[in-house]
Amino acid sequence: LTLPWVLFPKPSSRWLANRVLTLQSWFINRFIYQLFLPINQAGHKWTTILMSLMIFLISLNMLGLLPYTFTPTTQLSLNMAMAVPLWLATVLMGLRNQPTHALSHLLPEGTPAPLIPALIIIETISLFIRPLALGVRLTANLTAGHLLIQLVATAAFLLLPMMPTVAGLTAILLFLLTILEVAVAMIQAYVFVLLLSLYLQENV
User: Fold this and answer.
1) Of 88, 113, 92, whose CA–CA distance to 103 is shortest?
2) Where are the transmembrane segments (predicted)?
């Protein structure tokens, strides 16, 4: 419930911003610095879109933890709709700007001649699997966490009239799982954007 307050704090007209704005600015600056440090100047044009994607994913993942809400990022269709265009944009940009360097990823240096056809096929398949891996990873991690919370919560309610002590311990476990799921919601958003930045690094 405090997520909108953290993500969209009230702007201040003072020279020194409030704590929430300061924390938000520090987080965004550190994230951009760590993400784009290994990427050259041409890739810095992606700063806005990747930062916006990060905040968007964190918002969806965290709001999906509220009771009686729906988590859009547990749907593979939505995740693939985000992963495929961004991955394709990095690949097309690499083929346009430096085609020789982009195509060289399909054949590792020093490959024996008899293995060249097989390796090209394998590397091409691995290239096209990347967006699928991006979407499936986000979907699977969030779905697994939500299912685990649902199972533990159901067990706690069923055990309450029969074994209150065990139900209390189960409720503690449920609280710890919820904290873990909050961490997973933020980490998975970071991993999604981090992998996109690595694909971008290969093609700029």
Assistant:
1) 92
2) 49-70, 76-95, 115-133, 139-160, 172-200
Give CA–CA dist 186/110, Å, rounded.
40
Taking phi first (over 0 means left), then psi (-120 to 50 degrees means alpha), and beta for anything else, what does residue 110 get?
left
pLDDT tens, N- to C-terminus, the chain (204 residues): 566 666 666 666 666 667 777 787 888 888 888 888 888 887 888 888 998 899 899 989 988 888 888 889 999 999 999 999 999 999 999 888 888 877 877 777 777 888 888 888 888 898 899 999 999 999 999 999 999 999 999 999 998 888 889 989 999 999 999 999 999 999 999 999 999 998 988 887
The percent helix, strand, coil of the chain (3-state, each to 5) is: 80, 0, 20
CA-closest candidate to residue 55, choices 199, 189, 183, 195: 189
Q: Using an 8 Å Cβ cutoff, are 189 and 64 in contact?
A: no
| Orientation angle between helical segments 164-203 and 76-97, nearest 10 degrees | 20
d(CA 39, CA 156): 48
DSSP conformation class of 157: H
Question: How many Cα atoms are found within 13 Å in the side-chain-facing hemisphere of 200?
Answer: 25
Q: For residues 35 and 194, is the Cβ–Cβ distance under 8 A?
A: yes
Task: Give the residue from 9, 29, 13 showing the smallest Cα distance to 21.
Answer: 9
